[in-house]
Design brief:
This protein is an alpha/beta fold and about 600 residues long. The chain is about 25% helix and about 20% strand. It has helices at about 135-140, 165-170, 185-200, 240-245, 255-270, 295-310, 315-330, 335-340, 350-355, 375-395, 420-435, 455-460, 470-480, 525-535, 540-550; strands at about 25-35, 40-45, 60-65, 70-80, 90-105, 115, 130, 150-155, 160-165, 175, 200-210, 220-225, 365-370, 400-405, 440-445, 460-465, 500-505, 510-515, 590-595, 595-600. An eleven-stranded mixed beta sheet has the order 9-8-18-17-16-10-15-14-11-13-12. The chain has a six-stranded antiparallel barrel with strand order 1-2-5-4-3-7. The protein has a two-stranded antiparallel ribbon with strand order 19-20. Strand 19 and strand 20 (about 595-600) form a beta hairpin. Helix 5 (about 255-270) crosses helix 6, helix 5 packs across helix 7 (about 315-330) and helix 6 (about 295-310) packs antiparallel against helix 7.
């Protein structure tokens, strides 16, 4: 962008001021055609001496003087009508511009110029086009006093900072789109850092499928992965629990109906151990979706009792299949985070506090690392987290401000309704549609906006569009931008690294910017790449790879947990229940194998009398 920098803050004289000492280089051309959205300017590509000036290039802003106001336009095409170049004289060219708005000087002397996106007076034929002034350019992107942060500089003029209104960007949701390798993750990391500095009360939960954000936010972040995640199975709704049991396959309606009936019985047994199979009815009755603890052992016991009933003879194959599914899931090491706890206790406060950082203790960001986790686990857990995020914001009455950031969002919210996991889609749609009313915000990051649910994308009011090569993806972004800035998207396929086109509620007008450069050690994925580079010279450790592939814990060196004696009068989960006294534990002797439990030769045999 060519700009003229002025020392004075006001505009005391007309823009057309000229005298003998001033040259005419600011006068670039004259308007020869204009309609409601675009105009054409006649100019010359070279000066009177035949030297090519290069003053006209695509992407630059110009101003057209109309006396009281100055119309601002963006150059989107240039060319010669005869497609021929002459070295004998000046070469006339036609410049096509898109009208963006108009700038007028303030009423008081020395006041800043004011920019309006609408146009009250269109350029007349012969109006003079100038290079835009620095103060006018700043007025175009001025946020009019809104709470803002600086995320980079203008691509037209790197001396001018690029600002976004952080409150509007967060509250009305935002999306960052761009093809692989253009710097989306770096832009996300930069935005998060700036947002935390501007909004210290903000909590952030990142769905991180590539395990790269924890290293880029080391002072703000708490990392949660499959080994450290503690999300008990009883916090899952019925649909989410069924996704785990059926491993992403089509569910069986009969088995789901059985679960809907039996899970409330198991929850009632946990709350009232002496009540038996009696289930209370009324306004405070438990359902399969109520986040109340229960024991898998009680659920299996209810299935066994149902199979033993005479009237359930026809349902026995269904109940047997359901029991097998539950036992298989509980024994699967991939679901250790759900079923690992030996004591079923009401730990919902601790679980939610750890995940959503309440209190945050100076670390308001949680990175949920999902690399290597099976898809059915990811679907269920993301659904639970999104649902809890909205409910927490809702019932906190605005006291909890939470940003739910979805990296690779097309995995959770695909455009095809037959793909993905329906509860996850519903939970994220609820945040997108209603979350801003309660302080729950949504951030969407994807490289394929064409594969993203259009309902989710339409709820994002601020876009950061980086380089996109796919025509379908470009069409999606083109449909979201205002008509007065449509030509700006012509640059989508050719923008450089760290460049983006920002438009929507978070900016004053469509803005092409370049993000700030982060230090090398804070770039997402840098630590992971350094570890890979350090381990590359050595040989491949196939044993370690197979152990990670199996994901099976090593045998314990102490007595197995199920060998402990437990008081039958109390049940796990009772308020006074913790662990049996040390004296009541089974002592290891020659008949006890510390690797696998009791030896087969003595297991189940009656003790012999001396």
């Amino acid at each position: 962008m060519y700009v003229e920098r002025e020392a004075s803050m006001g505009e005391p004289t007309s823009q057309e001021r000229r005298n003998a000492e001033q040259n005419d280089r600011r006068i670039l051309g004259n308007v020869v055609q204009c309609d409601g959205a675009r105009a054409t300017i006649s100019a010359y590509a070279d000066d009177v001496d035949g030297a090519v000036t290069g003053l006209w290039t695509v992407g630059k802003m110009i101003s057209i003087n109309l006396g009281v106001t100055r119309t601002v336009g963006l150059v989107y095409a240039i060319g010669k009508s005869d497609r021929a170049w002459s070295n004998e004289g000046q070469n006339a060219i036609e410049v096509s511009i898109e009208l963006i708005g108009e700038v007028r000087d303030g009423a008081e002397p020395g006041a800043k110029p004011i920019f309006d996106r609408g146009i009250t007076a269109y350029p007349h034929i012969g109006a003079v086009a100038h290079r835009i002034r620095s103060r006018d350019l700043q007025a175009v992107y001025d946020l009019a006093g809104r709470h803002s942060i600086t995320i980079g500089s203008l691509a037209q003029d790197e001396a001018i900072d690029a600002h976004i209104a952080i409150d509007d960007t967060l509250a009305r949701h935002f999306a960052i789109v761009g093809t692989t390798g253009v710097g989306k993750s770096t832009a996300v990391s930069l935005l998060l850092r700036k947002s935390i500095a501007a909004r210290p009360d903000l909590r952030i939960l990142i769905l991180d499928p590539h395990n790269e954000f924890a290293a880029s936010l080391p002072e703000y972040c708490v990392k949660v992965d499959s080994k450290t995640l503690d999300l008990p199975f009883w916090m899952f709704k019925l649909e989410e629990f069924a996704e785990v049991l059926f491993r992403g396959r089509e569910t069986e309606p009969e088995e789901i109906d059985a679960l809907r009936d039996l899970i409330p019985l198991a929850k009632n047994l946990y709350r009232n151990p002496a009540s038996g199979a009696y289930l209370r009815r009324g306004s405070d009755a438990l359902t399969a979706d109520t986040p109340v603890p229960y024991r898998i052992a009680d659920l299996l016991k209810q299935i066994d009792e149902r199979m033993g009933m005479l009237e359930s003879k026809n349902d026995r194959p269904t109940l047997k299949s359901l029991k097998t599914r539950i036992e298989s899931a509980a024994a699967d090491p991939r679901y250790r985070f759900m079923f690992n706890s030996r004591l079923i206790e009401d730990t919902i406060h601790e679980t939610i506090g750890n995940i959503f950082r309440v209190p945050h203790h100076g670390r308001p960001v949680t990175c949920f690392e999902m690399a290597g986790m099976p898809s059915e686990v990811v679907n269920s857990v993301c659904s639970v987290l999104a649902r809890l995020a909205f409910d927490l914001a809702l019932w906190s009455e605005g006291k909890l401000q939470l940003l739910f950031l979805c990296e690779e969002a097309h995995r959770y919210m695909p455009a095809d309704a037959r793909l993905g996991f329906a509860p996850t889609r519903h939970a994220l749609s609820r945040i997108a549609k209603e979350g801003r009313k309660y302080g729950c915000y949504l951030g969407v990051v994807t490289q394929r906006p064409g594969e993203l649910d259009p309902t989710i994308l339409s709820q994002c009011s601020t876009f950061f569009a980086m380089r996109l090569a796919n025509e379908q993806d470009q069409a999606i972004i083109r449909s979201a931008i205002a008509d007065s800035s449509a030509s700006t998207l012509a640059f989508l396929s050719s923008m450089g690294q760290r460049e983006a086109i920002a438009f929507g509620e978070g900016v004053a007008t469509t803005m092409r910017l370049k993000f700030e450069r982060l230090p090398a050690h804070l770039l997402p994925g840098t630590a992971k790449r350094e570890e890979e580079a350090a381990s590359r010279p050595g040989e491949v450790d196939l044993v370690a790879i197979v152990e990670r592939l199996r994901n099976v814990p090593k045998p314990q060196s102490q007595a197995m947990a199920f060998a402990e004696a437990v008081d039958s009068g109390r049940q796990a989960g009772d308020p006074d229940y913790r662990k049996p006294p040390a004296a009541a534990r089974v002592q290891a002797d020659e008949d006890f194998d510390t690797r696998y439990g009791l030896k087969p030769a003595t297991f189940g045999l009656r003790p012999q009398n001396d």
